[in-house]
Design goal:
The protein has five helices and eleven strands; from the N terminus they run ββαββββαβββαββαα. It is of the alpha+beta class. It has a single domain, classed as Nucleoside Triphosphate Pyrophosphohydrolase (Alpha-Beta Complex). Strands 3, 4, 5, 6, 7, 8, 9, 10 and 11 form a nine-stranded mixed beta sheet that branches. Strands 1-2 form a two-stranded antiparallel sheet. β1 and β2 form a beta hairpin.
Length: about 210
């Protein structure tokens, strides 16, 4: 169950997740951007098709961690839980990056009205050193991208950038590591190119790396 809010973020009542998106009800989600100052990289994920979407969602590359804040937990508790479930990490060193308001309708039966709480999560592990054996089987791959390369594609200076990728088997969760995989602008969620708040959050993380 999720807590439903009005557009001023005042709590109203609890509702089922499917109804929340079907009826375009405001709710809270948490988003974590994992970054490594030792190699100046950000970490992203792709997912296997989810029945909960109810529509054919392209295989977009999205930030490291993301999920709903349940009605009985705080935003930070949701961050800890999602980090453990999705990419098998314990949240220790993190910083609040702000709230993004998302109001869009990707499909007639899946409408988004979200208060997205963003956090930067610091790690010292390289992608090839990470284990995802206990991760949620909805995560298809984890990508390691240089922050300047990601900024260049976000600002439309480049149409493709290199990445390292850990492709995860859906059942065993064992990974196959590949270097210099090309990522194209078409693989990035379209909203991110026109949303100034996304650029600001990445620039904030860049300042934290210095």
């Amino acid at each position: 169950m999720l807590k439903v809010y009005n557009n001023k973020m005042r709590p109203l009542y609890n509702e089922d997740k499917k109804i929340v998106h079907k009826d375009a009800l405001w709710h809270k989600v948490v988003t974590g951007i994992l970054f490594n100052p030792q190699n100046d990289c950000l970490y992203f994920q792709t997912i296997y098709p989810k029945e909960s979407y109810g529509f054919d969602r392209p295989d977009y590359i999205d930030f490291s961690i993301g999920g709903h804040v349940e009605d009985d937990e705080t935003v930070e508790q949701a961050l800890y839980r999602e980090a453990k479930e999705e990419i098998s990490i314990d949240v220790n060193d993190y910083s609040f990056l702000g709230i993004r308001i998302c109001n869009c309708d990707p499909a007639p039966n899946y409408r988004i009205r979200e208060f997205q709480f963003f956090y930067g999560l610091k790690t010292t592990q390289m992608l090839k050193e990470m284990s995802f054996e206990n991760s949620d089987n909805e995560v298809k791959s984890v990508l390691e991208i240089n922050i300047d390369d990601f900024l260049s594609i976000l600002m439309k200076e480049k149409s493709t950038i290199p990445a390292n990728e850990m492709l995860l088997d859906k059942q065993t969760r064992t990974g196959t590591y590949s270097e210099n995989v090309l990522v194209s602008a078409k693989q990035i969620i379209p909203d991110y190119f026109n949303d100034k708040s996304i650029l600001e959050k990445i620039l904030t993380i860049k300042s934290m790396m210095e």
